[in-house]
Amino acid sequence: EPASLMTRPGLVIANFGQTLLVEAGDGTSRPCVARKSIGQAVCGDRVLWQAGRGDAHGAVIAIEPRRSLLARTDARGKSRPLCANIDQLIVVTSPAINHSLIDHYLVTAELLGLGAVLVVNKMDLADETQTMKLRDEMYGYRAMGYELHQVSARTQRGLPELEALLKDRTSVFVGESGVGKSSLLQALLPDHEIRVGALSEASGKGRHTTTSTLLFHLPHGGDIIDSPGVREFRLWNIRAAELAQGFREFRSFLDDCRFRDCVHDGEPDCAVSHACELGKISLQRLESYRAILRALPAEEYD
Ligand code: GDP
Ligand code: ZN
User: Fold this and answer.
1) How far is CA 159 from the centre of its chain?
2) 41-73 per-residue burial string, b: 16 or more CB within 10 A, e: under 16
3) What are the helix (H) ranges across 170-270?
4) How crowded is the C-beta side of 201, counted as CA atoms within 13 Å?
5) Beta carbons within 8 Å of 71's beta carbon, 6+ residues apart
6) CB 217, CB 11: distance < 8 Å
7) Of all protein residues, whose CA lies closest to atom 19 belonging to ligand 1?
8) Which of 120, 177, 183, 210 has the most ligand 1 atoms within 8 A of CB, as the residue to mutate?
9) What angle, rounded to 10 degrees, do the helices at 283-295 and 99-112 form?
10) What angle do CA 292, 295, 299 make, to 5 degrees?
């Protein structure tokens, strides 16, 4: 069998529409096109592939089972994969915390079976009042079991701790625009711009970088997958009944509501509201839950 037809394992490190960049075991990467029959391969996918002859694109012939998947639902309601095999969401915020947004990301992580870490960036800008308020807010998230880090991309504060928690895992940075995700990536990957250029060069599609998804190996270990779509990824197709499951500290109360279909939004004998009155669930989280609930698309009943 000629070497070009040998089937070998690889990792998708970039997807630019039809063209995928597959990294082989030796660290080199080749542009490939996936066989139609295998479905859409995305960044983070472990695949089997064959190199093309000469300069020709290689062929991805199989996608290995995924341990997780971020997918978006398009306008027609069809699910479109964004990236695969993520272990954790790094939820980035500024010191002025937008609770309902953070909680939406935490729910996303819970429902997809991913870890979640809260990263408060721009700590160099936090004044005394904000720092005090943050201390209370962080105490609450830590009590729920979430890891929380205060960092500054500008002064590099907290970056070694962040590096340690990105090690040996595949992560994505999510959060509002302007909180400093690009700046953090830049701080963690000093040659970030160069690598983006190199990846798009290798795919032969340099112009499409803004819409493509890329995987970066961090110098201290671990991978980051990044694209504009990934940064703003949120689950919207959550069913009301599932939403409360995504609030981890609500779970132990959910069986005790009077109504089996209770959505904890003012029903009588609601165990979640009761737990909140007793201080076992924070009012902030319950309000966050209700804000997300009311923003969910109306469910279709049959
Ligand atoms: P993104 O939209 O989340 O990717 O945010 P950017 O990384 O583009 O950052 C938005 C703005 O915040 C830029 O002007 C950054 O220079 C600034 N910024 C990012 N991180 C920090 C930080 O830790 N401290 C301060 N003071 N500014 C920061
Ligand atoms: Zn209830």
Assistant:
1) 19
2) bbbbbbbbbbbbeeeebbbbebbeeeebbbbbe
3) 181-188, 192-203, 228-231, 240-243
4) 6
5) 79, 80, 81, 82
6) no
7) 180
8) 183
9) 80
10) 110
Ligand 1 is surrounded, with C-beta below 6 A, by: 121-122, 124-125, 152-154, 177-183
The helix or strand, by DSSP H or E, that contains position 111, with its residue range, turns out to be: helix 99-112
Token output for 84: 């695969």
pTM of the full structure: 0.91
- Please report which helix (H) or strand (E) contains residue 174, including its range: strand 170-174
Q: Interhelix angle for 283-295 vs 128-143, to 10°? A: 80
Q: Please write the tens of the pLDDT for every residue from 123-164.
A: 999 999 989 989 888 888 999 999 999 999 999 999 999 999
d(CA 20, CA 11): 10
260-294 pLDDT tens trace: 999 999 999 999 999 999 999 999 999 999 999 99
* DSSP E strand stretches across 1-145: 7-16, 19-24, 29-34, 46-50, 58-63, 69-73, 79-84, 88-93, 115-120
Dihedral Cα 100, 104, 107, 113, nearest 10 deg: -150
Amino acid type, 298: A
